[in-house]
Amino acid sequence: MTIDNNTGKNKEFYDLGKKMFDQIKPLNERVVADANGRKYITTEPRLDQGPDYERGFVDGMLHQTQTSVDKAVNRMAQPEQEPMFTYAQVKAHIQAAMMPIRPWVGLTDEDLKPLSDKWRIVYGGWVEDFAKEIEAKLKEKNSG
Question: Across all residues in the chain, what is the average pLDDT?
């Protein structure tokens, strides 16, 4: 990279920009009138660059079309990928995420007394304490 002593800028970059700028040619403007007498300013194509532009445009479009066709053919040649999840799995996950989190509900004395009768245990004292300990352990395990 060469630095221009006068400007302190990259001389090669400056020269390239100047060369490109010098190649720019203004468009030919022409005033035309329509059937109602209204005047418009139009630009005429530069005849010295028209065919080059058209050739470049057509070549660009052909390249873009060929690239698109190549991509489509390559995609068709690849084996179809298996889906990561089935519809049922996604649906179940969404439904689970949307379910409200229910608060912990402990056992009341009215819940424990019939169980004591069923198992023929006298309710009260150690039975009540034992049930509350089991309930606390379940709560701890289920709430993370």
Answer: 78
